[in-house]
Amino acid sequence: MPAKKTVASAGPPIRALIIDNDAAHAETMADSLSRIGYESTVATSGTEGSALLDKGDFEIVVSDLKMPDVGGLEILAKCKETLPDAEVILVTGHGTIQSAVEAMQQGAFNYLLKPLDLKQLRAVVDNAARNQHLRRANAELNRRLDEKFGFEGVIGNSPQLHDVIDRLRRIAPTDATVLIQGDTGTGKELIAQAIHQNSPRKSRPFVGLNCAALSEHILESELFGHIRGAFTDASSDRVGKFEYADGGTLFLDEVGDMPLPTQIKLLRVLESGEITRVGSNEPSKVDVRILSATNRDLEESIQAGSFREDLYHRLKVVTIALPRLVERHLDIPLLIDHFIKLHAQRHHKQIGSMTTAARRRLMAFTWPGNVRQLKNTIESMVVVDYDEVLDLDDLPADLFPNDQAIADSDGKGLGDLVGKPLSEIEGIFIAETLQFTNGNREEAAKLLGIGQRTLYRKIKEYQL
Fold first, then answer.
1. Given the DSSP bridges, would you call strands 283-285 and 353-354 parallel, antiparallel or unpaired?
2. Using CA atoms, how far apart are residues 45 and 28, in angstroms rounded to an integer?
3. Closest CA relative to residue 211, chosen from 99, 310, 315, 107
4. Pairing mode, if any, of strands 283-285 and 110-113?
5. CATH no. for residue 377?
6. What are the tens digits of pLDDT across the range 321-368?
7. Burial class of residue 289 in the structure, from the number of CB atoms within 10 Å of its CB (0-12 exposed, 13-18 middle, 19+ buried)
């Protein structure tokens, strides 16, 4: 019969430290917890336990309250200093219950009375372990979010992208409204999510809305919500994006396409901090940070009368201008590798490498659809590949018609590099050579005809 699954057996073992100057009592507690999956360590004095707290990474500490050298209250204080996430459980006699209650007020998880009931010990420790599993789950979720939407998730090493990330680091901790400008496919929503994920609002909702995809009346309902009977299909009350994002961030994509009547209402919300549902006269307070994005020139839209100048200035307290992919050419090799890994996992494909010819073809393309187009291209190549090596035969036919083909075997067809600074071209070829040699710097230096020390200096100079 299989062993019963316990709280301790969920995920990696929970590490518990047992501190009691009665060695037999300490070993009994440790053995009881080890039997149900805890990784238990014993200390037979307060001094020894305090020293172990400096060296170990314990998640649960069970300590006797009264010990002749270092007592349980001192252990509790030490834990709060060195292991603030650890849960501390104190074991006490009837005569020290008041001290145990005081300890709980100072942050102890619980206390147990002597003589100890091992069943009760396991139940209390299991409750503490649930808190630790929840912390682990939250930490893992935040790690994944940081990986996907944090600054590390903004892939690239070009000077242009470094400037963007430096600006993001300064903007994110604030509550300022941000206008993100850039061509279609440059990653405006990714940048908005990175700002939110690195802000004090990261634990609250991030809500996005595409303003170009909806009619005026639907857009207003989406933004502000509506009450039952506000219009023909309003059969019940509905919470809008502003209310749903309360305490968090609202991302308005394609804000330049927002109808003028809705612009007026949005401006009123930004000025008053209050929304009124469609069909209602009752305003509600909201606390929302606004991030917006557009591929339009809003100053031209203002001149044309299609965008309000006062709203423009409220939205652009801070601006971020995203470069086109062709302007951050050095980032293409990194993006290629990132998207290969991403789509290989998604489609359960084994992709070993991409040929130099295929890389050269992708590097020479102008990418009018920017990063999104490159991402879709790599996904297409991964899906159609059958030999675990991405090559010219995997390239989408409609992307590289014959009359625009770029010669690969003789290195011709690099006309797109004409007009670029020599330093950028040098960086591109060093990056490509390193890709070709799988990162072997000695081999790359030989191919480039330069010394290894020169190559190391160039790698640092171009941040490769």
1. unpaired
2. 15
3. 315
4. unpaired
5. 1.10.8.60
6. 999 998 888 888 888 988 998 899 999 999 988 888 888 888 888 899
7. buried
Res 1 pLDDT > 60: no
- Residue 290 sits in which domain range? 150-323
Residues 335 and 438 in one domain: yes
Contact 56, 78 (CB under 8 A): no
- Looking at the fold, whether 277 and 164 belong to one and the same domain comes out as yes
pLDDT at 363: 85
Could you tell me what percent of the chain has a pLDDT over 90?
A: 39
If pLDDT is split at 50, 70 and 90, which confidence band does 263 have? very high
Q: Which secondary-structure segment (H or E) carries 302?
A: helix 298-304
**Is 160 within the bounds of a domain?**
yes
| Separation CA 321–CA 314 (nearest Å) | 17
- For the ranges 104-118, 192-206, 268-282, the lowest mean pLDDT is seen at 104-118
Q: Which of 304, 323, 342 is the last residue of a domain?
A: 323
Angle at 464 between CA 437 and CA 141, to 5 degrees: 105
Q: Which of 323, 348, 375 is where one domain is finished?
A: 323
Give the sign of the dihedral formed by CA 50, CA 52, CA 57, CA 63. negative
CB 6 within 8 A of CB 37: yes
The sign of the dihedral angle between the CA atoms of 143, 325, 178, 241 is negative
Could you tell me what percent of the chain has a pLDDT over 70? 87
- Say yes or no: 293 and 391 in one domain: no
Same domain, yes or no, for 170 and 123? no
Domain assignment present for 5:
no
Cα angle for residues 12, 16, 19 (degrees, 5° grid):
170
Annotate 76-100 with b (16+ C-beta within 10 A) or e (fewer).
bbbbeeebeebbbbbbbeeebeebb
Same domain, 78 and 204: no
Tally of domains within the chain: 3
Residues 189 and 309 grouped into a single domain: yes
Task: State how far Cα 57 lies from the chain centre.
Answer: 25
Mean pLDDT for the chain?
84
Q: Are residues 302 and 344 in the same domain?
A: no
Band (138; pLDDT cuts 50, 70, 90): low
Contact status, residue 180 vs residue 188, Cβ threshold 8 Å = yes
